[in-house]
Write a structure and sequence with these properties.
single chain, globular
């Protein structure tokens, strides 16, 4: 039976399998790679933006400008929490469909050093660790990333993400920050919850 303990143990094991020194809470959650140039947005810059809306990082400002949304919409969307069941989330992310989902969701955004090789493991561990308290959010998942992540736009990857939301177009359908906004809702919708127990009517006596 998949339990909360098992879910937590698997998340910890996922981190330990990464081929780099890793722990939840990287200080550099987004490294924007374009050609041979790299710009880094630190976790502290994101935290300041989430907390009070202040933008202190040029790369973050560019990411917001190219997100297809206003800065206020991204701030609100990435700060929004969604109720989840830890076991249900873990069941989904360890299923065949979940692995396919994680691979699809790391199209151009993946670990800086190991790239796609450890993308599924790294994103899965971040989501599960954030779900431990029964809630997930974009900001929370980002805080739990075990290693630096890069948004790769250098020929190998085109810098576009597969945003998990129908009906979007342009930058809203491909930008990193738009992807982050809709990721937790997509995980919530796909979690595999235990079946509700069947309630049987009490047997009535003959007298």
């Amino acid at each position: 039976m998949f339990t909360r303990f098992a879910a937590g143990a698997l998340a910890a094991a996922s981190i330990s399998t990464l081929a780099v020194a890793a722990e939840a809470g990287t200080k550099r959650p987004v490294r924007w790679v374009s050609g041979g140039a790299v710009w880094t947005t630190k976790a502290s810059s994101f935290a300041k933006f989430f907390n009070d809306g202040e933008i202190t990082d040029r790369a973050l400002e560019a990411g917001l400008n190219n997100s297809g949304w206003t800065a206020d919409e991204i701030q609100e969307g990435m700060s929004k929490s969604y109720d989840v069941d830890l076991v249900g989330v873990s069941r989904f992310l360890y299923s065949a469909d979940g692995v396919k989902f994680l691979d699809d969701q790391t199209r151009s955004y993946f670990p800086y050093w190991q790239k796609k090789k450890t993308a599924v493991v790294a994103l899965r561990s971040a989501i599960i660790l954030d779900a431990a308290d029964g809630e997930i959010s974009s900001a929370g998942i980002m805080r739990q990333l075990p290693v630096d992540f890069r948004l790769n736009d250098n020929g190998v990857s085109d810098g576009a993400q597969n945003v998990c939301k129908d009906g979007l177009s342009g930058d809203q359908a491909t930008s990193l920050l738009s992807w982050y906004v809709f990721l937790p809702a997509c995980v919530q919708a796909n979690q595999i919850l235990p079946a509700e127990p069947v309630r049987t009517a009490p047997v009535r006596g003959l007298w």
